[in-house]
Amino acid sequence: MNAIHRNEQQALARAVLEINVNNHPGVMSHVVGLFSRRAYNVEGILCLPLGNGQHSRIWLLVNEDGRLPQMIKQLEKLEDVITVRRHGADHAVFSQLEAFFQA
Amino acid sequence: MTETLTGAQITVRLLERQGIRIVTGYPGGAILPIYDALGQSTAIRHVLARHEQGAGFIAQGMARATGQPAVCLASSGPGATNLLTAIADAKLDSIPLVAITGQVPRAMIGTDAFQEVDTYGLSIPITKHNFLVSSVEELLTVIPRAFQIAASGRPGPVLIDIPKDVQAQAIEVSEWPAPGQATPAPTAATEAIAAAAAMINAAQRPLLYLGGGVVHSGAARLAVDLAEKANLPTVMTLMALGAMPVDHPLSLGMLGMHGARYTNLALDECDLLIAVGARFDDRATGKVAQFCRHAQIIHIDIDPAELDKIKTAHIGITADVGQALAALLPAVNENARQIWVDRIHALQAEFPFHMPDAEQPLSHFGLIRTVAACLDNEAIIATDVGQHQMWVAQAYPLRRPRQWLTSGGLGTMGFGVPAAIGAALAEPERTVVCFTGDGSILMNIQELVTAAEQNVNLKIVLMNNAVLGLVHQQQTLFYGERLFASQFQAMPDFIMVAKGCGIAAVDLDQAANPCAALMEAIARPGPCLIHASIDAEQKVYPMVPPGAANHEMIGH
Ligand SMILES: Cc1ncc(C[n+]2csc(CCOP(=O)(O)OP(=O)(O)O)c2C)c(N)n1
Ligand SMILES: [Mg+2]
């Protein structure tokens, strides 16, 4: 990705979603499937277990789109999703990772 | 008392404790331990379908008729994939279903083992929730939880995939979990109810729009009470037919693509739309931007994700619709609303619904009306998918919630016969009628054998136009009359097929007195196929053309 393209990408409004989930093998499919089957691109994903490993936290970087409120409601309906919080694109979780994503 | 039980025995015991008395399914290698345990159960009767899709729809028929979660079973691989259509159908119509599938042993998962498919992955997008059981202990939580999820909130299908070694492994069980029950639904916020009541009281031209959620919630009586108290003309979705008797003075029947002209025109004039347990499906709304374009919207639904999904509501209320209607009822004023009621009557007079040849029992409408004349409101009416389905929706006097079983959201041909068998199994005291088409019946024709074996009180009315009528209609109207792949070149002798499967059959075409032959066939207990040829040129009218607004209907 060249620098200009990258800037353009960043100019798109973004949102960061913080999703607390039960930690078992199917959860990622449930969450990501909601986006993919609506052709809603997920730009970034980060997931690690919390505490004793019963729960995990998934961070998603997504484009702002008219469908985002509906996506959040659909996420909240998933049995394995405990909470969903929406943050602005400036949230530190992804920007601190930039160093790992140099071409 | 501590017992040593296998996963299969635990599964069956949990189903028994859940109150399940009939399950339906089809065996195969990966679910044989459960079948072995099921064979020992004295509480549960197993109905062997003749195809897993049939089993899925038989279970759906039980669930739709009773409102309680129903269970179907299938083996791994092809057994599971054959169930998928019925599960997807249950998802779109919010039907509580618990599907249990066998899976290859845990150690073989991911090895392309014989009859291994990723049932869990395949079922994610078409279930409310799904489980791949990873230990025998887990069954004790997963099975009650599956029933709880299927029945709670907006109902839906839940799949439990159980590896064969989990079924076979034994553990000691000393304590049983409570059966899974529906959890209490959210209640409507008091302020929102007050605001909604004020809006209804202030409206000049309000309309009540009932969806399948009213049936699921058991709220039909309350909906009718509200309509009567405030004189709210009422439209119903395909899924809600019968929630208000369709011949009630305030009923405008079904809205949308094949609703009556006066119904869609009334929607176009209303100033307030009160949507209850409905989801603004595209077949109901037509072009959404034009739907109820002069109206404010109150939207009540148990599923918060339905609010503002298609249309932004002025007041959105997340609640069990029964609870919300009960709260709304005392807050809404009695109101004769004479001007609006008169206007509705004027629309009905000016743009009536036409039912040509309704007195002629071998016409499409005549056949439906004659069947209705042979039955009372206790009968259950199921349909397949096609023109016949829409004609029955338009013309049958549905008067009771859960009287009407039809595949709404997925529109699945092949739904009718097995769903009707399921309804007849669950409510054996009722007569069940299934209106089907010559295309649809072939999609699950093998279930005629199940009907014969179970001797269900099912009358299958086959409206044979020798075409895929709805496709034929679209090709005629919108594809320059280029009929392609919609006319059958070969047609089975349905009378012989029915008899060959072991059920009685009557051909109204050959009857000296079709009315008498029909009455006799319906009155005789047990399964029967009633065949009648109808005219392939008949259309379902009126019709909102694809992409058009509801007030731009064609045909009369
Ligand atoms: C499983 C499935 N395949 C295809 C369709 C598309 N489809 C809708 S109605 C229809 C024709 C149905 O024919 P028939 O059962 O004879 O009913 P008719 O319209 O003639 O009354 C078809 C092919 C469908 N709804 N379901
Ligand atoms: Mg046909």
Short description:
Chain A is built from 4 helices and 4 strands, in the order H-E-H-E-E-H-E-H. Chain A is of the alpha+beta class.
Write the layout of secondary structure elements.
The complex is a heterodimer of chains A (103) and B (556).
Chain A lengths: L2 H9 L2 E9 L4 H10 L5 E9 L4 E9 L4 H10 L3 E8 L3 H4 L8
Antiparallel strand pairs in A: 1-3, 1-4, 2-3
Chain B lengths: L2 E4 H11 L4 E4 L6 H8 L5 E4 L3 H15 L3 E5 L3 H15 L4 E7 L15 H5 L5 E4 L6 H13 L5 E7 H5 L1 E4 L16 H13 L3 E5 L1 H5 L3 H11 L3 E3 L14 E4 L6 H9 L2 E5 L5 H4 L10 E6 L13 E4 L2 H11 L6 H13 L13 H10 L6 E4 L3 H9 L8 E2 L10 H11 L5 E6 L2 H4 L3 H8 L3 E7 L4 H10 L15 H7 L3 E4 L6 H10 L4 E6 L23
Parallel strand pairs in B: 2-3, 2-4, 4-5, 5-7, 6-7, 9-10, 9-12, 10-11, 12-13, 13-14, 15-16, 15-17, 17-18, 18-20, 19-20
Antiparallel strand pairs in B: 1-8
The complex binds thiamine diphosphate and magnesium ion.
Thiamine diphosphate binds next to helix 16 and helix 20 of chain B.
Describe this structure in words.
The complex is a heterodimer of chains A (103) and B (556). By secondary structure, chain A is of the alpha+beta class. Chain A has four helices and four strands, in the order H-E-H-E-E-H-E-H. Chain A has helices at 3-11, 27-36, 68-77, 92-95, and strands at 14-22, 42-50, 55-63, 81-88. In chain A, strand 2 (42-50) and strand 3 (55-63) form a beta hairpin. The longest helix of chain A is centred in the N-terminal third of the chain and has 10 residues, at 27-36. Chain B folds into three domains: 3-173, Rossmann fold (3-Layer(aba) Sandwich), CATH 3.40.50; 190-350, TPP-binding domain (Rossmann fold), CATH 3.40.50; 364-533, Rossmann fold (3-Layer(aba) Sandwich), CATH 3.40.50.970. Chain B is built from 22 helices and 20 strands. In chain B, helix 1 (7-17) packs across helix 2 (32-39). The chains are: A alpha+beta (103), B alpha/beta (556). Chain A binds chain B through residues 25-26, 29-30, 33, 37, 69-70, 73-74, 76-79, and chain B through 120-121, 124-125, 128-130, 132, 149, 303-305, 308-309. The complex binds thiamine diphosphate (TPP) and magnesium ion. Thiamine diphosphate binds at residues 384-388, 411-414, 437-440, 463, 465, 467-471 of chain B.
